[in-house]
Amino acid sequence: MAMKKDADKTASKKVKKVSKKLKVFKSPSAFSVLFIIIAIMAGLTWLIPSGRYERLEDGKIKSNSYSQTEKRLKVVEEVKNPKTEISISDAENKGYKNAASDFKKAEEEKKEYYINLKQGFWDIFLSPIYGMAKKLDVIVFILILGGFLGVVMKTGALDSAIGGLLKKMKGKEKWIIPVLMTLFAIGGTTYGMQEEAVAFYALIVPIMIAAGYNAMTAVMVIVLGGGVGVLGSTINPFSTGIAAGSADVPLGNVLGVQAVILVLCLAAAIVFTMRYAAKVKAGGYKDDVRYKPATTTLDMKNVPKFTAPRKAVMTVFAITFVLMIISLIPWEDFNITLFSDIYNHAKDLPIIGAILGIGHTVSFGNWYFNEISTLFLISTVIIAAIYYREFQKENVFVVDTFLKGTADLLGVALIIAVATGVSVVMQNGAIQDTIIYWGESLLGHVGHGLVGVLAFLFYIPMTFVIPSSSGLAAATMPVLAPVAELVGANKEIIIVAFATASGLLNMIAPTIASLMGGLALAGVSYRTWLKRTAPIMVIFALISMAVILVYGAML
């Protein structure tokens, strides 16, 4: 009996070891997932033919201009000769003999070399470096945001404000979810709030955890809320706006159908998230957050007092986020010139304009990551000044606190760089245009009733290939929109298919840097995210395709 027990124990230990190994294998880190994808894409550059479309001066693709290129591409460049910087007569006067013939020879000299479009081992590891360069403005923003949050958290102001809010809402915390998701959806449908949403994780994650939920709930609120807004883009200039412009279609033609998709998908997302949150509060899904969130969790039993300095800090905190939102909305696209008028007046003020450096920036509505990074840096300085006396009492050094905050988000910044590396490999391998050409050929041979659904299915992998919605619209719409008319359909159906498919993939594709960065901030693995959100993604896809079919039949 003793021997049997020992054998059972040994067998049990082996099973546990195997199961642990399997768990580790099944849950690779975000970096591992992305590098595997980069390696796969590098391999595809050997298999998929390289090719290019001709592009117009504005960067749009010229229809029916695709041509296949060799994997070993010949490049011819003229050699610059210093002598050509002076005239032939001047050269002769300076003593150059046979200047005319020498210059003629120099003009005929050319440099020839070859570029191998096949991406190899070196390119796999080089692509994140190029990705970091392409997303440097976003990465700098993430790091400054980390420093800003580090200083804010050190004051205890955020904990105090959130704690006070949740105490007042005790028993009604669940209603925070639909309110926040609606706000994120509005941001997504109006100006495509995606990468900018990374800033809100530090606020939403502590709220959800303190309310009795988990970090996954916070991710759902942000990603699903903002995601359905992008999926159902109505006046989003970076999605439907560019798509409609590239297809020569008035934006108003797709506004109604996009609004229908937005309402249906948002309702589904809210119900799904609230059901998940209720199960979490009941004790379920304990393993969904395996890593420690990069944000500070709030201890509801020891909520700091909401003192006057902390109230001032939270005022600056709130103003900073409001200004960020206002500055990123493209007001002029909606024929609102208030902010540009104020800016033009202020920059011409001889003294105030110069002191503030107004002429060295741009008006609200034209800001991007460099500007909002500066905004958060200025806010950090203001908060440090407000809380200066308290920091002195606590022997806190603001610079050290800021640097520690940046270090906390360094991993997020690196994930964004690696995620961008996927598209770098595909661009360097010149296979993106080939995939677009395949889509053009596919849609050109189907009936008008199915062209919308097939375009939706085509845009799903295309969003993986070209993560930028504006870039994808500009690259594909001039090609695919005319194809729709050739088979008896309307261009509008292609725009709707693009917007919905692109918005859907923005919530699940590992090439979306903001998604991977947000998951890292919340401590949620990519695999767990896919597992939990798969049902709602299927619902989004079904709603989108159903509306596309009905809309196509009505046109």
Element-by-element helix/strand order: HHEEEHHEHHHHHHHHHHHHHHHHHHHHH
Which spans of ≥5 residues are poorly predicted at pLDDT below 50? 18-26, 82-88, 103-108
Overall geometry comes to globular
Strand order, biggest sheet? 1-2
Radius of gyration: 28 Å
- Tally of helical runs: 25
The span between the termini is 78 Å
Q: Into which percent range does the helicity of residues fall?
A: 55-70%
How much of the sequence lies in strands comes to under 5%
Task: Explain how this protein is built.
This protein has 555 residues and is mainly alpha-helical. Among the domains are: 72-116, no CATH class; 131-416, no CATH class. It is 68% helix and 4% strand. It is built from 25 helices and four strands. It has helices at residues 2-26, 30-47, 88-93, 99-108, 121-134, 136-155, 157-168, 176-191, 201-210, 215-231, 237-246, 252-281, 308-328, 338-347, 352-356, 369-386, 388-393, 398-408, 410-428, 432-443, 451-465, 469-486, 491-505, 513-522, 526-554, and strands at 50-52, 67-69, 72-78, 110-116. A two-stranded antiparallel ribbon has the order 1-2. It has a two-stranded antiparallel ribbon with strand order 3-4. Helix 8 runs parallel beside helix 10, helix 13 runs antiparallel to helix 16 and helix 20 packs antiparallel against helix 21 (451-465). The longest helix has 30 residues, at 252-281. The protein is globular and about 70 Å long. The protein starts with a helix and ends with a helix.
